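Lab notebook, entry 384. We have the chain sequence and a SMILES string for fe (ii) ion, and the next step in the workflow is to get a structural model of the bound complex before anyone spends time on docking refinements. Request logged below.

Task: model protein plus fe (ii) ion, output structure tokens.
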Amino acid sequence: MAATLKFNQNGKFRILLMGDPHEYYTPSRGVDKRTKDFLVLENMAIDELQPDLVVYMGDNTHADTPQALRASVERITRPITGRNLPLGIVFGNHDFEAKVSDPWEYINAYRAYENSLFPAKDDALSGRYDYHAVIRSSDGSRDAFNLWFMYSGNRAPKESCSKYDYVRPEQIEWYEKTAARLKADNGGTPVPAILFQHIPVPEEYELFDEVPAWRLPFDALRGQDERDNKCYKLKKGVAGFAGEAPCAPSVNSGQFDSWLRTGDVKAAFFGHDHMNDFAGDVRGITLGQCKLSGFHPYGDGTRQGVRVIDLDESAPDRFVTYMRYYRELVGDRCQSITGPERLMHDRTSMTLEFCLKAFGTAAAAAALGAAGAAVSHKIKKLKQ
Ligand SMILES: [Fe+2]
Ligand SMILES: [Fe+2]
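Result returned:
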């Protein structure tokens, strides 16, 4: 049976997002230091933030045998299962890439946990593993809020059109039909909703200004895919940080327009872009990133973090969201990142990447040394 969600007696509900764990567990090799660091962050975040629901934002686990998959899921979700917290999952482009590639193996591995939000019946999911979960009002009388969990695929069917996949028309149709049913059950008013998905929608670029290429080493980012001949910078007033331009699909399947038409989605949050944690308004809908919480993939030093979303039953349009970083929750030391890169901050890693591409290893090493010394000095000062 899937978990049931309900606003607390004070009308609040807190969601904790964890981005891109990228857990790859081989039983014969034991537990990796990087997994241990992820678990420390997960435990500390749950203890301090006391969420009512935890959501993994995709690229969660990949495994070569069904046994390794179940062990991997069991291991990284232990801080959640041990506290009997509800767990929501969206899948990312890497989840089904290893030898175990059947999505149902993954769904069933997470569904084995009785407080998972995956519907108990297979036909309650769309044909592409999308599902939703309502949050009941604090008095239990109505559906007060809704959460969408959408699958954004892996690579696009035709690489010439787009590198990354996108939510397909039949998924949009499933979303619209399901939202219409919820609206009818709610007396004709759309049930306010937040949507979770791994790969961002192309409309995230509306949070950026296009800027000249000479700004690349300073504060600009090269566009991705079809936009790689353009440079971008986050617009003034958009909260958070962009360490890379959105890796959105080049094909726009109309998903964002569907949200506008349907009128229920107040915000959509994404993973996939490990160094992005901005959130801003696009035509009345908040688009936000949760940067990575895992330590396995590329990132930027120990700037891993988690995102908090606080819902208020009496004001569903006015949710609050913010990031909490590993350094705030745990500190500046971890087991898997021990070199100077643990002192890096977002801008340092971008400058480093630019130096590597433009001038080679020596220049990058010099930049890293200078940045590491500067950050080390700053941390010392903060601790004084
Ligand atoms: Fe990822
Ligand atoms: Fe991804």
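Notes for the group: Confidence is low (pLDDT under 50) at residues 371-384. Worth checking against the assay data. DSSP finds nine helices and 15 strands in the chain.
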